[in-house]
Write a structure and sequence with these properties.
The protein is α+β, with helices and mostly antiparallel strands and about 80 residues long. The chain is built from three helices and two strands; from the N terminus they run ββααα. It comes from Mucilaginibacter arboris.
Length: about 80
């Protein structure tokens, strides 16, 4: 397996790149790795989440819902 280390501007390791064929082999051996793959959301799912976010903002503006600290929001992303 030939992996590549991803580094930031300071030379600190921040991630790893695994060739897709190696990833497929690892997934065969370790079924729990399937849960780590990113699944692109559908257009409908994105629109629904945006609608929910707008509704939540409206409730916050009306004082019916308490806003979260920005750090909590960023941590969620």
């Amino acid at each position: 397996m030939k992996v590549q280390i991803i580094e930031d501007s300071k030379g600190e390791a921040t991630g790893i790149f695994i060739p897709i064929q190696d990833w497929k082999e690892l997934k065969k051996q370790y079924k729990e790795l399937e849960t780590l793959e990113y699944v692109q959301p559908s257009k409908e799912q994105l629109l629904q989440e945006l609608k929910e976010a707008v509704n939540e903002l409206n409730l916050i503006e009306q004082g019916k819902l308490k806003a979260r600290p920005a750090k909590a929001l960023l941590d969620e992303l």
